[in-house]
């Protein structure tokens, strides 16, 4: 087979490696390197077969601009670049354009059609190797199609801007959509389906009667569809109490207890997935959420074109690598809780597209509640009395269902996840250590698994908490945290608690099966406690930390120093700073 005909196969493998759940991510580094080397050999042979111009024409058909420009850079043929709009349906006056070069030094400028606001250079790494630099240019413009770029150094010709292609559908979502039983179940049990046929009509009606005043210039906030008590609710409660001048609304399933709780204080609520929710989003100025999946950003899909700015408050501190998930999304603003988190997102030549101005250091909204709880406990003289156990979820053990929750996959009960965590939870030495120190062991499952209590049965001496119950008090009472990879460790650290990391499946967790890969964060060098790989060692580490018999006072002092230096603010004003950042965003984008 001619080398040029083999390029499509390599393009598919390279593109797969750029996806969040790409199968090539699970390959050993040596095998990934073999694929990269074979691709280079094939590219060289194709160049000899076709010549530079015909090969450029062939690579122009490669779906991913990252892959096409990576190959041109490797061949020394990157003397021209596409100017690709980063998102298929962008919102706001500031647009992101992607240009590619073999070097990272700033070289591109706006020649016409707009004003350059900010730049970010990203290293494109595929199959574990650097291939090309992606130059992100954020341009303020009212006519994106008329924007033109120039290379200040004269070595690269910049072609006219081209629209972005829609990102590939996540395999888990594709599987979910393809099931015929799901479609039938969706029609039977999901009330939103019955409303869908009304959404287009409601849009027509609202246009005829004019803007609905109560929804005009709204800030819409939401956490998960079936759960509040996260960063979005924390910010919403601040707006409700302190900023009545902002037209803030909260979207939540009316069946959950938090809906009734918020209604009692007179909060402005809309039932999640209702026509009111649809009309609210259609008039919204900004959508603010702790979640970033497509269903959270726009629950109405093709029934409602996105016209609002998106602010991502996050569910916790980002400490593992999520660039494959975030880069295809238009996220207008991401709030950062620590300086290390912010630098991980915005550093030059890093994996993320976020520029410095898009990631303000505001602090995490829900930590204001935790600060108040800690202050109250200090005033009462209360000591922490909880061992908090927080295993995170595994995407390969669950799949989305018709009710927008997650169902367990067949075989989940027999998984290594269940075996390992069950061994830990039922270890009598854990019980004895808690009794010696007057601690109450509490299991807090991840929100996507908390509806499946049967997955991890607990002994009678262990309590089980839920995010529906409100967790600020629980974190304030935590003396020691036990998790695997969860960002809950950062929240426990806010109150001064160290963490034991139980990472029995690290290779599987970070090999593409879950939603993140290893990032710059080193659990051993930067974490707040020891890292272990077996249930027995985890219990031993818990007992040693509690008893003060770990045998290494320097390590314990190191954990304490990391905890003390973690947060820039402990002043209860994170919501205030987040609000100011969103107001600046609106002023810039509108």
TrEMBL record:
Show the Pfam families listed in the entry.
Glyphos_transf
Instruction: Write one Gene Ontology MF term.
Output: CDP-glycerol glycerophosphotransferase activity
Q: Name one GO cellular component term.
A: membrane
Record's protein name: Uncharacterized protein
């Amino acid at each position: 087979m001619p080398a040029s005909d083999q390029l499509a196969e390599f393009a598919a493998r390279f593109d797969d490696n750029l996806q969040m759940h790409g199968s090539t991510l699970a390959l050993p580094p040596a095998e990934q390197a073999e694929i990269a080397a074979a691709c280079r050999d094939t590219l060289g042979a194709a160049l000899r077969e076709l010549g530079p111009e015909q090969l450029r024409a062939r690579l122009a058909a490669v779906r991913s601009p990252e892959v096409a420009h990576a190959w041109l850079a490797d061949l020394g043929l990157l003397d021209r670049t596409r100017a690709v709009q980063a998102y298929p349906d962008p919102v706001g006056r500031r647009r992101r354009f992607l240009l590619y070069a073999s070097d990272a030094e700033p070289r591109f400028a706006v020649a016409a059609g707009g004003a350059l606001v900010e730049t970010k250079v990203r290293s494109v790494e595929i199959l574990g190797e650097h291939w090309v630099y992606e130059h992100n240019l954020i341009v303020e413009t009212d006519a994106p199609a008329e924007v033109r770029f120039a290379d200040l150094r004269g070595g690269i010709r910049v072609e006219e801007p081209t629209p972005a292609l829609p990102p590939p559908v996540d395999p888990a979502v594709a599987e979910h959509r393809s099931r015929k039983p799901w479609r039938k179940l969706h029609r039977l049990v999901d009330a939103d389906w019955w409303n869908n046929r009304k959404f287009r009509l409601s849009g027509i009606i609202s246009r005829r009667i004019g803007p609905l005043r109560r929804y005009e210039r709204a800030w819409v906030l939401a956490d998960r569809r079936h759960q509040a008590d996260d960063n979005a609710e924390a910010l919403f409660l601040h707006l409700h109490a302190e900023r009545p001048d902002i037209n803030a609304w909260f979207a939540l399933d009316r069946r959950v207890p938090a809906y009734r709780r918020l209604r009692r204080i007179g909060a402005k609520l809309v039932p999640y997935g209702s026509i009111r929710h649809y009309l609210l989003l259609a008039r919204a100025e900004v959508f603010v959420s702790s979640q970033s999946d497509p269903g959270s950003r726009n629950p109405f899909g093709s029934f409602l074109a996105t016209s609002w700015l998106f602010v991502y408050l996050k569910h916790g501190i980002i400490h593992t690598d999520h660039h494959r998930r975030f880069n295809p999304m238009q996220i207008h603003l991401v709030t950062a809780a620590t300086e290390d988190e912010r630098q991980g997102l915005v550093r030059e030549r890093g994996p993320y597209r976020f520029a410095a101005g898009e990631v303000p250091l505001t602090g995490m909204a829900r930590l204001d509640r935790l600060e108040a709880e800690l202050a109250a406990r200090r005033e009462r003289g209360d000591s922490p009395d909880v061992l908090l156990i927080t295993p995170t979820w595994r995407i390969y053990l669950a799949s989305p269902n018709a009710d927008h929750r997650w169902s367990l996959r067949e075989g989940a009960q027999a998984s290594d996840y269940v075996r390992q965590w069950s061994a830990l939870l039922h270890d009598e030495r854990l019980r004895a250590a808690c009794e010696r120190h007057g601690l109450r062991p509490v299991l807090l499952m991840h929100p996507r698994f908390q509806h499946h209590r049967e997955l991890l049965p607990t002994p009678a001496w262990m309590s089980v908490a839920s995010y529906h119950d409100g967790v600020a008090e629980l974190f304030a009472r935590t003396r020691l945290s036990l998790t695997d990879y969860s960002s809950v460790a950062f929240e426990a650290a806010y109150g001064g608690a160290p963490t034991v990391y139980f990472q029995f499946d690290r290779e599987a967790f970070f090999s593409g099966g879950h939603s993140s890969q290893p990032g710059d964060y080193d659990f051993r060098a930067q974490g707040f406690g020891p890292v272990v790989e077996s249930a027995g060692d985890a219990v031993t580490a818990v007992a040693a930390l509690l008893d003060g018999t770990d045998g290494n006072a320097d390590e314990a002092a190191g954990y304490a120093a990391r905890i003390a230096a973690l947060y820039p603010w402990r002043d209860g004003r994170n919501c205030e700073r987040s609000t100011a950042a969103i107001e600046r965003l609106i002023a810039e984008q509108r």
